[in-house]
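Human: You know discrete backbone vocabularies at least as well as I do. Show me how you would write down a chain together with its backbone fold. No explanation is needed for now; the record alone will do.

Assistant:
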Amino acid sequence: MNAFIRSVVRCALNLRPETSVWGVIDGWKGLINNEYRRLSKLDVAGIASQGGTILGTVRAPELGENPDLQHQVARNLDENYFDYLFVCGGNGSLKACATLDRIIKAEGLRTRIMACPGSIDNDVANNYGTSIGFYSALDRSLEMLEWIRNTASSHRRVYLIGSMGRDSAYLAFYAGIATGAEYIIRPRENVNYEKLATMIEERDRDTRIVVAEGYNKSLEEIRTILEEIFRRRNIKREIRTVDMGYFQRGGQAAVTDILRASWLGYRMVTDALLGKYSGFYTAFYTGHYQDPLPLDVAADDSRSNHLDIPQEIIKMTIALR
């Protein structure tokens, strides 16, 4: 997200120097409390590869539940004379943007909203592009999975490895593909544990099973099921669990995310300087151009988003085993 902040600030001030750019402190909480900070080009120097966001981000679930609060935020933006609000965030942020945009239009307020996807789960309007942060989290995941491989192989262990991915298994699945994990459990998957135990038994040294966060059993529950099968079938394998979800966020940003965040920030600023209306911007790669989606369309998962891994990717994964 820092690369996105840098892009918006630098592009706005370089393309139209008289522009003033303000950062919202702590995201939606800052919009509720009217907390802003004016940003200069020096404020964003050297931040493109830093993980997280220099502005902070705090969840505000009450905003989605309280219409009075939604109207207050819309008025706050208007009363502070903000012409545009730039947002990089997940599904909750996107839905909040769509709600605010409806209020602003209904009440004839001044602010227009431009948004783009920021989610390590890659589950924001992913029919149209990849979320900023996904490849950075993937880099962290690969590093940790290689560490785990070393230990698992040395001790002939089975590792159940938790990964972020509440609804979509993209992060767990792509990390598993890239590092050669033996199995990846997706949300909503009907796992054949007897077959999984057979695969483990046939392994010579180590087995790494990546489990997406949204799967309906915990790592310990999966461990209990497998250990019972091992006892019944006299399979001699030790099972350990580790949750890498805590470490997938943050760290140095991947170059792919830096470049796409820079591209989307540039596109949003240039459109804003042309007086364009609110919209949702996304891209599969740097330089990929497509017209922005209306915010209400982007926020409608049935039209803009898919959660399950495409079948062709699953078939490729099976062929790679």
